[in-house]
UniProtKB/TrEMBL annotation:
GO terms for molecular function: hydroxymethylglutaryl-CoA lyase activity; metal ion binding. SUPFAM superfamilies: Aldolase. One of its GO terms (biological process) is L-leucine catabolic process. Pfam families: HMGL-like. This is hydroxymethylglutaryl-CoA lyase. Residues 7-274 form the Pyruvate carboxyltransferase domain. The keyword Hydrolase does not apply. InterPro entries: Aldolase_TIM, HMGL, PYR_CT. NCBIfam families: PRK05692.1. Pathway: Metabolic intermediate metabolism; (S)-3-hydroxy-3-methylglutaryl-CoA degradation; acetoacetate from (S)-3-hydroxy-3-methylglutaryl-CoA: step 1/1. It comes from the Bacteria. Keywords: Lyase, Metal-binding. Belongs to the HMG-CoA lyase family.
Amino acid sequence: MNTNSEVRIVEVSPRDGLQNEKTLLPPDIKVALIDRLSATGLKTIETTSFVSSRWVPQLADAAEVFNRIRKVPGVGYPVLVPNEQGYRIARTAGATEVSVFTAASEAFNRANINASIEESLQRFEPVLEEAKAEGVKVRGYVSTALGCPYQGEVPIADVVNVAKRLYDMGCYEISVADTIGVGTPAKARAMLHAVSQEIPMHALAVHFHDTYGQALANILACLEEGVRVVDSAVSGTGGCPYAKGASGNVASEDVVYMLHGLGLTTGIDLDLLVATGAWLSAQLNKPTASRVTKARITAV
Ligand code: HMG
Ligand code: MG
């Protein structure tokens, strides 16, 4: 049993939350979002992606946004990079933490980054080497850990293998991701348990999309299994443009409400988070997907 009562939320709304939005948001709004998030007590905010702007037009302003955000001491601002080219551009923009991403299923990886799993891992090798030499922290994502939009079922052994490869290459933390939100608690827990046989639990994170409404239940099951790092996005924004059927991430407001209710600590001011989620949904001109923000919206 993990008796550690501190949970770190990795807020992914500026990256995962926005990457699937068709209406291009101006950099001012993105900078304002990240600055607001920085004031909530969050310790990690994934700010943007240095991917091809042809693949993800919404985040073509990555360097400008990264440059302009207020960097609060003690808060990490990782950025997503798919290859060495992205890593170099991110470093020039001043990034000191990056995330690499691959998947446990071949077909999804091909659709998402036009590479096989093996090719993607090979692409990360120079990234990990340069990052090590430059003192840059690298996080690794394993997508489709509980199901693939093309392949369907994904064997747990495939998730374990890819996660271990990333960890052995030098990623300090591995986030196992239910990209299309099809997982259920017992499956999520079994997957995390299997991965934790190869990678210490303190180096694992969970990343749930909420397509089938299972995300909070999955997180609870994974907390019981011992995980203490959870990815989420305010207002329940998010989704991968190359994962058919993917919907938003689990809403940070709902995760924080649940965690505090369980007596776990996050260091996050829930009122500020709710206000930020409500503000973001207004900027996106769509209703919030956070139940907590819906419940409190009149008070914002
Ligand atoms: P490609 O077309 O196979 O690559 O794309 P390429 O090497 O042939 O390059 C094509 C063009 O892109 C070239 O430009 C390169 O310079 C440029 P051109 O010569 O044609 O003008 N390029 C870049 N430009 C900027 N930054 C770069 C970069 N790399 C190449 N880093 C590539 C391959 C990986 C680039 C492309 O497939 C890509 O960018 N994919 C990103 C897809 C993406 O961002 N998906 C969403 C994030 S993952 C996710 O959401 C899942 C996650 O949340 C966890 C979960 O929920 O599962 C993390
Ligand atoms: Mg995601």
